[in-house]
Amino acid sequence: MNQPLPSDPQQTAQNPIGVFDSGLGGLRVLDRLMQTLPDERFVYLGDTLHMPYGEKTQSQVTEYLSACLRWLFERHQVKMMVVACNTAASVAPQLFGLYPGVPFVDPVTPICRWLATAGQYRTVGVMATPATVASNRYQFLLDDLNAPILLSQVGCDNLASLIEEGKGDTPACHALLRQYLRPLQDRGAEAIVLGCTHYPYVMDQVAALSPGADVLDPAVFMALEAKRLLAEYQLVSPQVTGRSMAEVDYFVTAEPDRFYETSRRMPFQALAMKQPTVVSIPALSLPS
Question: Which fold would CATH assign to domain 108-218?
Fold first, then answer.
């Protein structure tokens, strides 16, 4: 029997913000959110059991995301949802509508809106997972915004997995980056969007291999969008006396030690890693 998904959860400004990713890639988004919103509380969930999402089917990604969203809303009553995973946000954006009245932030919409309004680039490249590229969500959104941009997309097999394993600075990773950047360079990309939360961890390498192109991290635009939506929905957390930075609780669905050991070596500015708690999140039967 199909289980209905919840809708219209109780929201208050004191509730935390949920941040979801398939693994540790979303921690960079969380770090940017914590810098931008220091008075907020966050709950981070990494679905490390099913990572990488970019090589899964659409139905699998939809199932995993729906179960994780339900867990975050039921267990933590999150007031806003930041879906940091490009693949999940591109493949299953219809799930956001199952929570009416809740602001959702995804990686694709804010940067596409900025590209369309800024008018700085005529040719833009996107490095993303195969599933994100197959969804064509970047192109759909730019078309909706009537952006006069020639878009080139490259699906990057295995790149997210290498970075998740802490192998972003290895010959194997360098070789993949050269392989995936070559077609974007051949098409004259003036800017390159890092369309997976894991890729900004090798941003310096991408920039070094792409002289003359601007490298764009969606996390910057996501944090600004979150700040805007909190104000619009009147969900800004009251200032807490004596607290110097945002608070966060970490959860993963598998391999907490690897997640912790890899992520604590990352160059975060506001985020101080703690050992994550392992949670079991049962799959849902989606409404037909």
Answer: Rossmann fold (3.40.50)
